Amino acid sequence: xxxxxxxxxxxxxxxxVVKGQLGVPSSLPLPVLVAVAAVxxxxxxxxxxxxxxxxxxxxxxxxxxxxxxxxxxxxYYAGLALSGRRLAAxxxxxxAVCGIAAxxxxxxxxxxxxxxxxxxxxLILALAVIGLPLALGLLVxxxxxxxxxxxxxxxxxxxxxxxxxxxxERARIAREMHDVVAHRVxxxxxxxxxxxxxxxxxxxxxxxxxxxGIGREALANLRDVLGVLRTPGRESAVQPPPTLGxxxxxxxQSRALGIAVTRHDxxxxxxxxxxxxxxxxRVVQEALTNVHKHAGDAATDVLIRYGxxxxxxxxxxxxxxxxxxELPGAGWGLVGLRERVELLGGTLRTSAQDGGGFLVxxxxxx
Length: 366
What we know:
By secondary structure, the chain is α+β, with helices and mostly antiparallel strands. The protein is built from 11 helices and 5 strands; from the N terminus they run H-H-H-H-H-H-H-H-H-E-H-E-E-H-E-E. Among the domains are: about 1-115, no CATH class; about 245-365, 2-Layer Sandwich (Heat Shock Protein 90).
């Protein structure tokens, strides 16, 4: 809409100039003058795409009829768009146009000579038609660039403040985990080692060794997490994240704690994305943890099914055979697991089964 109004304004001003109301009257027929003004208005309307046609029409109209509105608007857009050598080239072209117009005015004499060939009038007209709009365009562009620079600087400062706040929060979490969680797990490992050394029988010694091994693995994973928290972007330095290749070791740990775990694989096993494998491993890990917490030594089936475009994981436990021990929990395990699965575009389903069992089922695109 803005360029439509601009085109209409240039058409009206150009028509008034060539008819003599705002410039030198022309002896051309009115239809010709209207056509010339219409061409100028059309070029101004197209300035949203390219203002060079407007500059060409303005140069021709200025030399031929001293029709200055197109050249005035083109000079403003030149100030908005040009810099350096291109701006110097435009100024050189404008000087050439003024020179040619002066020569043409001297040949035609009368009002044309007065407007374009008289030194004082020519300078005033060139300053009003070319210099002032060009300076205005440069001023507007400078202000726009300054505003954009200020906005980018504010955005950068906001990003830096947000990064600093995140870094401080990560450091705080890392300190809390080190001072509380790592300390408690270290005590657990030390007590398990002492129990292993003073075990009265082989079964107790094996159980203590298992607890110590799990605790040391937890400490290693915890150190890895703390390193990532303190140094964002740091790769895992202790050991790579577990995948389905580590699943049997996880199941063996649950079997050593008295749970009868059976693994079933369906479909043709194939390589899938590492993030999918890690998520599938975490599904089984969290489900087995819940079995230990809430179902005691209930028999559990773990199913890994390779579908055409997805990987399905099911962990189904029977009703508890003996009362489970009281293990504390925050209640966020399944919530975090659901978020992890949904981030990959999958779905997680949990439901109680007839007879007292429980099912955790995940479908992950792969």
